[in-house]
């Protein structure tokens, strides 16, 4: 009888935690998508630390968000040299990331026919026990749902605090109230203020995570772009690479279809739109860092060279992905031509 009572109590607690996670995630998702629906006309700026399109919502160059609005118990976890998170926070973080990761995987399997290219080499890089360098993935930003939905293609074992990515996310969208702040904080979204430039707490924290050989994800366009051409990349990724203790391995990613699933104008979500996700080969910037540290090039030149190389590699991956999709439609099989490691979620 006591054993049955214990099981019943455990089940009630489990359902309570799952229900709370679902409610929290639902509220966070609703707030995130409705906030991100606002369209802003883009204007160029001469500030190289900001880039085009980020000063449109502020006639002056005041930041879009004040970090003091984030509840302290969440904000303190994104401070450099902060103590490790406690057991309860890690459990809650695992629950949130596990629930969101499972939902993303189910969505790509059931509601969005998905084709993945070159995933296995990327997973091998993440799973390498001997890896002593951080990983930075960079991708185009086609919708507000890109992260976390695109991670539905990785195994569920990755959705935990020790293995899941840390992503730089817009604070003025993700961290505007206590509930969404808690949700995105547990989801390892680093609150980033557009307009603060590359010398801001979010980038400092990202560098600290890189020094712990963590996995970072960055959308270098810094905002949703549903046009054909890439926007100019921001320099934050360059600073992270240059100031990390060990040169990160940068893996470009290109995906299509997310702009159809979550367009800027239209319904919150559309189903059964095809999605394509391609992983590129890792980029090693050690040669550029060696030139900079030896004094052969200055800091700005090194940062521009790094950012420009990432831009060109991502653009080339886009073109390669388009060729591979054309080959599939023409009946080319995996292993022929450029098709390698094609798979489903």
What's this, in brief?
Helices cover 43% and strands 11% of the residues. It has 345 residues and is of the alpha/beta class. It has one domain (2-329): Glycerol-3-phosphate (1)-acyltransferase.
In words, what does this structure look like?
The N terminus is likely disordered. Helix 1 crosses helix 7 and helix 9 crosses helix 12. Strands 1, 2, 3, 4, 5, 6, 7 and 8 form an eight-stranded mixed sheet that branches. The protein is an alpha/beta fold. It has one domain: Glycerol-3-phosphate (1)-acyltransferase, CATH 3.40.1130.10.
Count of helical segments?
Answer: 12
Helicity range? 40-55%
Approximate shape: globular
What kind of sheet is the major sheet? 8 strands, mixed
Q: Any idea what the radius of gyration is?
A: 21 Å
Q: What is the β-strand count?
A: 8
- Structural class, judged by helices and strands? alpha/beta
Low-confidence stretches: 1-60
Separation of termini?
44 Å
Number of domains: 1
- Summed over residues and divided by their number, the pLDDT gives a mean of 85
CATH superfamily: Glycerol-3-phosphate (1)-acyltransferase
Strand content: 5-15%
**Topology order in helix (H) and strand (E) letters:** HHHEHEHEHHEHEHEHEEHH
* CATH fold node name: Glycerol-3-phosphate (1)-acyltransferase
CATH architecture: 3-Layer(aba) Sandwich
CATH class: Alpha Beta
């Amino acid at each position: 009888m006591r054993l049955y009572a214990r099981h019943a109590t455990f089940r009630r607690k489990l359902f309570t935690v799952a229900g709370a996670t679902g409610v929290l995630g639902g509220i966070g998702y609703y707030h995130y998508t409705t906030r991100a629906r606002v369209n802003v006309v883009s204007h160029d700026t001469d500030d190289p630390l900001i880039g085009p399109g980020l000063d449109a919502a502020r006639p002056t160059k005041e930041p879009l968000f004040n970090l003091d609005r984030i509840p302290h118990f969440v904000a303190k976890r994104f401070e450099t040299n902060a103590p490790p998170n406690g057991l309860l926070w890690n459990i809650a973080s695992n629950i949130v990331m596990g629930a969101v990761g499972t939902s993303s995987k189910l969505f790509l399997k059931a509601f969005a026919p998905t084709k993945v290219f070159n995933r296995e080499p990327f997973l091998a890089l993440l799973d390498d026990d001997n890896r002593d360098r951080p990983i930075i993935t960079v991708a185009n930003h086609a919708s507000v749902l890109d992260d976390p939905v695109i991670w539905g293609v990785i195994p569920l074992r990755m959705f935990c605090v020790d293995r899941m990515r840390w992503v730089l996310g817009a604070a003025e969208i993700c961290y505007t109230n206590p509930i969404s702040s808690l949700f995105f904080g547990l989801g390892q979204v680093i609150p980033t203020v557009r307009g603060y430039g590359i010398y801001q707490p979010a980038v400092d924290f990202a560098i600290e995570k890189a020094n712990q050989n963590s996995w970072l994800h960055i959308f270098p366009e810094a905002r949703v772009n549903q046009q054909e051409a890439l926007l100019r990349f921001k320099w934050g990724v360059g600073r992270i690479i240059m100031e990390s203790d060990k040169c990160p391995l940068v893996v470009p990613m290109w995906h299509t279809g997310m702009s159809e699933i979550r367009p800027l104008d239209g319904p919150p979500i559309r189903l059964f739109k095809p999605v394509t996700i391609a992983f590129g080969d890792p980029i090693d910037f050690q040669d550029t860092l060696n030139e900079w540290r030896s004094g052969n090039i200055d800091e700005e030149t090194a940062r521009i060279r790094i950012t420009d190389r990432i831009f060109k590699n991502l653009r080339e991956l886009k073109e390669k992905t388009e060729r591979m999709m054309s080959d599939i439609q023409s009946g080319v099989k995996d292993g022929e031509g450029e098709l390698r490691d094609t798979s489903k979620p």
